[in-house]
Amino acid sequence: MILETLITTVNASKQAHIAPMGVHTDNDNFIILPFRPSATLDNLLETQTAVINYCDDVRIFSGCLTGRRDWPLEATKTIEGYYLQAALAHDELQVERIEDDPVRPKVFCRSVHKSNHKPFSGFNRAQFAVIEAAILVSRLNMLPDEKIRQELDYLTIGFEKTAGSKEREAWNWLMEVIEQHWEKSA
Ligand SMILES: Cc1cc2nc3c(=O)[nH]c(=O)nc-3n(C[C@H](O)[C@H](O)[C@H](O)COP(=O)(O)O)c2cc1C
């Protein structure tokens, strides 16, 4: 199973980095697959630790892809690092081994500590739409404009019916970046 999460890592100077990543999971075993080059990968190699944040504030997914990477953090318990204040829960990870690859290495990790912070309050289609749109933004230079337009048309249906204010803010940040990209390529 792949979970869309926010990974927080630190470098050797304890400077934090936040990035959305799809994490492969099977109970307490996780595989993080960063495309090179990646600050997350650099930090994983440097400190051998990471945090998976389970988070329904989709502004953080959208924010990280639109230049808004500064989100409130809390210190972790068992590893040197941080989790997101907005996380509903988090897993503190230790790297076990790395399968290197010139394009997308596999970083195998094990959870050494779990914490629950807030209750899960149900599924929301606008949150799903923002996450899908954030993935489109992360691939803007790889996908044809027509494909992006088609996917956005579909995502807009669920988004418009179900979004709250956080989802609208997150969506608007992504749409600004997509429109700027289209203006540049027009
Ligand atoms: C939901 C979601 C899942 C993503 N999953 C991955 C992933 O598994 N690997 C990856 O390299 N980038 C992924 N991305 C894109 C990264 O978040 C983005 O490119 C980021 O800047 C990674 O580089 P960094 O480690 O240097 O921050 C994902 C983006 C989104 C919105």
Helical content stands at 25-40%
Q: Give the distinct bound molecules.
A: flavin mononucleotide
* Overall pLDDT level: 97
Beta-strand portion reads 25-35%
CA-based gyration radius: 17 Å
Number of helices: 5
Strand order, biggest sheet?
A: 1-2-3-8-7-4
Number of strands: 8
State the name of the first-level CATH class of the largest domain: Mainly Beta
User: Which fold name is given in CATH as the topology of the largest domain?
Assistant: Pnp Oxidase, Chain A
Oligomer: single chain
Shape label: globular
Label the structural class: alpha+beta
Q: Describe the sheet with the most strands.
A: 6 strands, antiparallel, barrel
Specify the CATH homologous superfamily of the largest domain. Electron Transport, Fmn-binding Protein, Chain A
CATH 2nd-level architecture of the largest domain:
Roll
The low-pLDDT segments are: none
Calculate the terminal CA-CA distance, rounded to whole Å: 39 Å
**What is the N-to-C order of secondary-structure elements (H for helix, E for strand)?**
EEEHEHEEEEHHH
Keywords:
six-stranded antiparallel β-barrel; alpha+beta; 37% helix; Pnp Oxidase, Chain A; binds flavin mononucleotide; two-stranded antiparallel ribbon
General description of the model:
The chain has 186 residues and is of the alpha+beta class. The chain folds into 2 domains: 2-116, Electron Transport, Fmn-binding Protein, Chain A (Pnp Oxidase, Chain A, Roll), CATH 2.30.110.10; 125-185. Helices cover 37% and strands 31% of the residues. The chain contains 5 helices and 8 strands; from the N terminus they run E-E-E-H-E-H-E-E-E-E-H-H-H. The chain has a 6-stranded antiparallel beta barrel with strand order 1-2-3-8-7-4. A two-stranded antiparallel sheet has the order 5-6. Helix 2 (59-65) runs parallel beside helix 3 and helix 3 packs parallel to helix 5 (165-185). The radius of gyration is 17 Å and the shape is globular. The N and C termini lie far apart (39 Å).
